[in-house]
UniProtKB/TrEMBL annotation:
GO terms for molecular function: succinate-semialdehyde dehydrogenase (NAD+) activity. Residues 29-489 form the Aldehyde dehydrogenase domain. The active site is at residue 266. It comes from Actinopolyspora righensis. This is Succinate-semialdehyde dehydrogenase / glutarate-semialdehyde dehydrogenase. Gene3D superfamilies: Aldehyde Dehydrogenase, Chain A, domain 1, Aldehyde Dehydrogenase, Chain A, domain 2. Keywords: Oxidoreductase.
Amino acid sequence: MNTHDQPHHPRETTVLDAVPRGLLIDGTWQSAAAERTFDVEDPSTSTTLCAVPDATADDALRALDAADRAQSSWASYPPRHRGEILRRAFETITSRHEDLSLLMTLEMGKPLAESRAEVTYAAEFFRWFAEEAVRIDGDYAVSPNGSGRMLVTRQPVGPSLMVTPWNFPMAMGTRKIGPAVAAGCTMVIKPAHQTPLTMLALGEILTEAGLPHGVLNIITARHADEVMRPLITDPRARKLTFTGSTQVGRTLIEQSARQVLKTSMELGGNAPFLVFDDADVDAAVDGAMLAKMRNIGEACTAANRFYLHRDIAEEFTDKLTRRMRALRLGRGVGDNVEVGPLIDSAQRDKVTELVDDAVGQGARVLTGGKAETGTGYYYPPTVLTDVPPSARLTSEEVFGPVAPISTFTDEDEAVTAANNTEFGLVSYAYTRDMPRALRVSESLQTGMVGLNQGVVSNAAAPFGGVKQSGIGREGGKIGIDEYLETKYIAVGGL
Ligand SMILES: O=CCCCC(=O)O
């Protein structure tokens, strides 16, 4: 047994046993019609945690039937009541914070401190949209020629399909479910096959909070395409929202074209992290640790490329390397663990391949650089310097704890390098020069900028990207718009 290979503690078993193991369809927990199941794995030990139903296309269509049947009564539910359901769910998540954090760590691997932060972040989307449900507004105006009136109202889009990722199993659910509930949309949601348990626990919380039957339907499935394609091509579905890779997002957009679905896509990133010569280097290193290591680097927001002004490069690199080397790796439930395993062997292999490619092209390893052996999918915090622009990890999303460093000599060079990517989710910039801060922020081709800040995520802010990082915004004042259609009523006869 190596250091990561611990037996499950009785509390872990209790938390796992409390999760409903079914498909949530029309308010009841059901097994898959074909009685199929698939195993959920603990990535920190590569052992099976439990099995959940493996839905078929028929199960998925039953879920959509339920969502479709519930849509019109749900749309006319008082907004205040919809908000109160979200508020109650927020309170329940808060009261079960510790158990939900443990559950998430078990199925996803991230350290408990990270899971706790995610549960808090996830709950905030329910609190935020509980408050937004009653602020769906409209317009009344006299027509320009004075002879009529123009009414503008906003109505729920309708049954919404949701596909959520494994890296933030709860927050990416609440960021979609919160505005859909507030707007009056029904849902069919498919969590990632690696992390279905957190979503099932969330389904139970929303049911307890009084969400009417059929409003939220959850299907767990091993193979996404088998269940999602029939839903996306069904005329009753009106919207598709997805968080995940750009590659899968492109396919879903293509499939959505058939029914002209309204789509929201929160896709991949390749975040540049710029540190200028006037920056507070210690603050930049703190920010870099967050931007790089939050969620073990398995985040679309993760800093993927570091560009340092040559005058501060050595100081920043030394300090970052020391901090990365000192991080404690281990099973997420362990005391003081700061870096958990990657989600699966495919992800660990991909990180290995990208680091090997960079090293093969001349990059130098300052710390880390080799996958751990033994059970669990561990990759150590890694810093690479002298990374050439041709290295794959400057254009591909690493999704792991690897910080590749390059240097620059002037602002234009830094911004050009930062923008040299098909992605446009988020960038980070550290500078104390205010005109430069604003100039650079405006020039960076990303939907979000962390200015002297290593985390941008906030339920009250519009999260989303430009270029191939996505379509639409989640969270903030405009997050609910993704679930609303604008209707104009031309009033005559006056
Ligand atoms: O991988 C990307 C999910 C978004 C995480 C966040 O909201 O910070």
